Amino acid sequence: MKLLVEENNVEKRLDHFVSENTDISRSQVTKLIKEGSILVNGKKTKTGYMTRLNDEILVEFTSQEMEAKPEKMDLDIVYEDEDVIVVNKANGVVVHPAPGNYTGTLVNGLLYHFKNLSSVNGELRPGIVHRIDADTTGLLMVAKNDKAHEKLAKQLEEKTTHRKYYALVWGVIKNDTGTIDAPIGRDPKDRKKMAVVDNNSKDAVTHFKVLERYKNATLIELKLETGRTHQIRVHMKYIGHPVVNDAIYSNRKLFDETGQCLHAKELGFIHPTTNKYMEFDSKLPECFINIKEKLENE
Hints:
Elements: E1 2-4, H1 14-20, H2 26-35, E2 38-40, E3 43-44, E4 56-59, E5 76-80, E6 84-89, H3 106-113, E7 137-143, H4 146-157, E8 162-170, E9 177-181, E10 184-187, E11 190-196, E12 201-202, E13 205-213, E14 217-224, H5 231-238, E15 262-270, E16 277-281, H6 286-296
Parallel strand pairs: 7-15
Antiparallel strand pairs: 1-4, 2-3, 2-4, 5-6, 6-7, 8-14, 8-15, 9-13, 10-11, 10-12, 13-14, 15-16
Helix pairs in contact: 1-2
């Protein structure tokens, strides 16, 4: 993994810079620096090194750390054949291993249940064609072989897949439908978060439709034209209607620790071998329904 130091990150401690710009914890970063697995311009350095403009930071991992291992895990498999798996991901489950987080992920569970998964995305992401946040629930397609993976990924790239989300958001949305067209990039104030920004951002478009209105919240259906990190959560915060129970992008008090009320409800795609269109639907999870009922009864 390579990181380039830009103007807004000059004169920052190396351990702070790396942890803020990756998914690696501060303690893990410190360990990697001491092991010589984090290099600055090709050289070993100390934790307290202060970054300079255009420094190239190389983060390396040992083969043992890079290995994803099978783990026994209950998975909600909605569909399976020789090419494709459709899984309904539970709340709190990270999709694939990442630095500092190599166990308990969906990939670990998939490796336990299935002998063959595609290798297109490398050893840490076998079978993973697309992903959703850890605290987002819902449907994901997984590829069992590289041919299927490439065809499914192409559909995502060409925006021919069908993906529909349900979300509970704070506040009452007056318009029945709407489109949010606002670019998303790293939040300059907090590099672990995303935000609507003009610089170093990518186009992002979200369409929404109101399903139900409550006293202080709204149930909406969403479709994405693009697939940016945290897109729905960032866009809903941007228009003043953050996702209910979102610990990062909402400043409202959390109902509980079950994660944000955001669910990937529908998933449709053309089967990579039969070329037939397939579509799947999933029920809202219990954690979502519990909060929805509380808002309905206010």
